[in-house]
Automatic annotation (TrEMBL):
Entry-linked Gene3D superfamilies: 3.50.30.30, Peptidase S8 propeptide/proteinase inhibitor I9, Peptidase S8/S53 domain
InterPro entries: Peptidase_S8/S53_dom, Peptidase_S8/S53_dom_sf, Peptidase_S8_His-AS, Peptidase_S8_subtilisin-rel, Peptidases_S8_3, S8pro/Inhibitor_I9, S8pro/Inhibitor_I9_sf, SBT
Name of the molecule in the record: Inhibitor I9 domain-containing protein
UniProt-listed PANTHER family: PROPROTEIN CONVERTASE SUBTILISIN/KEXIN (PTHR10795)
Length: 496
């Protein structure tokens, strides 16, 4: 009726013929709540709106990449700037935005939070009262899943909840048997991605980067005994709601985990209709709040976002719309102290994940100081078989440790170093320790420890050092929790 003719009135103002000379790109057109319960009628309304702009229903249908028709109304389509401007004037259209890209954000954590799995019956806690998340359906919008992980074993689970309406979408190295009574559904969304972005990917819900598998197991992984990180942090790994069911929506692609807003909205649209109880999204981009999640919340679905990895700078929290839960990253009461012994019998403490016997450098090695460990400073010193101190406060103030450390590790390994002592300003360093990989021991220290080592170097003709294997320490002696250095922080720059 009137709304449709109002859109036609704007679209037929003489602009159709000029659209062909412009370059098309993907836009997201949001039309608010659904006006029809029948999804096919919602999609037909999208075709009608686009036909009014293209002048041809065939061209309109070809332009659509996704039709959002289950949880809300809208679509993603290839449009020129002029076509997008015309659509924005239609009375049914709430907003028209260019597509943007999102990035991926992520054994004792849950016990530290008081969600102990094996609490005595007389002292049952929140996890027991919640029945370990029994039959709660959690949708994970991320990079997919590796279904063979022991975290997703479905032994002991009953039938899939009858309210579940989703599907197990097959694809490359992922068939119907990849889903089970734990992973009860899986979908993948790639229509918005280029061939280059999908290169070497699994065209299926199977996870290439590992991010989605990590997130899903953290949320709802079942108990897996006898796990550790090279012998460190040994114990039982499990998710926060170990008896919950998982529904997987793959929207992030490639080894770095990147996906577009259009695909995320398609996953959100399906998840609402599939029957999830909770939605988890560990992804985002500055200024890209998913306002469409309001439709999920209206259906009683709890939506949980990560705040982002923009720390330690304030006002970097993403996904901060008021109807969702936005979560920062924090430390727990566990640390990995590593004893450093100097040739003058002085003993200092750093942190590392150095626990591999094949990398053992428990005997003394020559110690050299190469300032920021730039290519120039490393080239000016013979560091082969030696332990390198990388300590440059001025450079550290410019380049965050989590960006500098991987570069330094690669440089020192290529130069044949036996060990690396990396100094940085933040005592909250557990988040970057996993970057210390390869055949070289890597220890992270604060500036105070680094200064002590440098003083020893300056006073000693032939300075030496040895590094002991890391230990696992948990409990009250570890200051926690603290916001992790990489985690985004508030307050939000958005104002409601």
């Amino acid at each position: 009726g009137y709304e449709k003719s109002f859109c036609l009135h704007h679209a037929t103002g003489g602009n159709v013929a000029s659209f062909g000379v412009e370059q098309s790109k993907l836009y997201i057109v949001y039309m608010g709540g659904k006006k029809h319960d029948d999804p096919s009628m919602v999609t037909e309304s999208h075709h009608d709106v686009l036909t009014s702009v293209f002048g041809s229903k065939d061209e309109a249908m070809k332009s659509i990449v996704y039709s959002y028709r289950h949880g809300f109304s809208g679509f993603a389509a290839m449009l020129t700037e002029s076509q997008a401007a015309t659509l924005a004037k239609c009375s049914d259209v709430v907003s028209v935005r260019p597509n943007i890209y999102h990035e991926a954000h992520t054994t004792r954590s849950w016990d530290f939070l008081g969600l102990d799995y094996d609490q005595p019956r007389e002292d049952s806690g929140l996890l027991q009262k919640a029945k370990y998340g029994e039959d709660v359906i959690i949708g994970v919008i991320d990079s997919g899943i590796w279904p063979e992980s022991r975290s997703f074993d479905d032994s002991g689970y009953g039938p899939v909840p009858a309210r579940w309406k989703g599907t197990c979408q097959a694809g490359q190295q992922f068939d119907a048997t990849s889903c089970n009574r734990k992973i009860i559904g899986a979908r993948w969304f790639s229509d918005d991605m280029s061939d280059e972005e999908l290169k070497a990917e699994y065209m299926s819900p199977r996870d290439l980067s590992g991010h989605g598998t990590h997130v899903a197991s953290t949320i709802a992984g079942g108990q897996v005994s006898n796990v550790s990180y090279g012998g460190l942090a040994a114990g039982v790994a499990r998710g926060g709601a170990p008896r919950a069911r998982l529904a997987i929506y793959k929207v992030l692609w490639g080894p770095r985990g990147s996906g577009s807003h259009a695909g995320v909205l398609a996953a959100l649209d399906h998840a609402i209709d599939d029957g999830v109880d909770v939605l988890s999204l560990s992804l985002g981009q500055a200024g890209s709040e998913l306002f469409e999640t309001l439709h999920a919340v209206e259906r009683g679905i709890s939506v949980v976002f990560s705040a982002g990895n923009g720390g330690p700078v304030p006002q970097t929290a993403w996904n901060a719309v008021p109807w969702v839960t936005t979560v920062a990253a924090s430390t727990i009461d566990r640390t990995f102290p590593t004893l450093i012994s100097l040739g003058n019998k002085q003993m200092l403490m750093g942190q590392s994940l150095h626990n591999n016997a094949s990398m053992n450098i428990s005997d003394f090695k020559a110690l050299v100081y190469t300032r920021s460990c730039s290519m120039q400073s490393l080239a000016s010193s013979n560091i082969t078989g030696k332990i390198v101190l990388c300590y440059a406060p001025a450079e550290a103030a410019i380049t965050p440790p989590r960006l500098a450390l991987p570069i330094v590790i690669n440089r020192t390994m290529e130069a044949g170093a036996k060990g690396l002592i990396f100094a940085q300003y933040d005592a909250n360093i557990l988040d970057i320790l996993t970057m210390c990989k390869g055949n070289m021991a890597c220890v992270v220290v604060d500036f105070e420890i680094a200064h002590t080592i440098l003083t020893y170097l300056d006073k000693t003709k032939n300075p030496v050092m040895k590094v002991s294997r890391a230990m696992s320490v948990i409990g009250n002696q570890v200051l926690s929790p603290m916001v992790a250095s990489f985690s985004s922080r508030g307050p939000s720059v958005k104002r409601c």
